[in-house]
Amino acid sequence: MEAVTIGLPMVFFNAIPGQEEANAELLEQRGCARWARDIHNLEDVVTALLINSPRLQQMSERAREWHVDGAANIVNSLIEILDATNTDEPVELVKAEESIN
C-alpha cells in the first residue's frame, strides 16, 4: 500500500489468489490501479495508461484521496484513551501478551 500513500498509480499482474487478488480488485474499483488479469492484456493495459496522462493523474488523485494514515490513527486513539483515564490514580499498563492469557 506504499504506492497509495504517495499517490502512485499501480498495475497489478499475476496477483496471488486470496489477499493479493482482493487488493488488486479493490484498488481497481477505487480507481487507484488497473489489473492486468493475464499476460495477453498486460502490454495493452500499461500502454493505455502511459499514453493517457490525464488518466494517470486521476488514478494518482484517487490513491491520495483513499490514503489512510494508520499510524496517526493509532496515536490519536491512544491519546484519547489516556485522556479518558486521566485521573490522580496511577494507570496500570498491561503488555499485549499478558492480556491474552
**What is the number of E strands?**
2
Spatial strand arrangement across the major sheet: 1-2
Radius of gyration, in Å, reads: 21 Å
Termini gap: 33 Å
Q: How many individual helices? A: 6
User: Main beta sheet, described?
Assistant: 2 strands, parallel
Mean pLDDT: 84
Q: What gross morphology would you assign?
A: elongated
Low-confidence stretches: none
Q: Beta fraction of the residues?
A: 5-15%
Q: Which structural class do the helices and strands define?
A: mainly alpha
3D architecture notes:
This protein is mainly alpha-helical and 101 residues long. Helix 2 links the parallel strand 1 and strand 2. It has a two-stranded parallel ribbon with strand order 1-2. The model has no long low-confidence stretch (mean pLDDT 84). The longest helix is centred in the last third of the chain and has 15 residues. The chain contains six helices and two strands; from the N terminus they run H-E-H-E-H-H-H-H. The two termini are 33 Å apart. Helix content is 61%, strand content 8%.
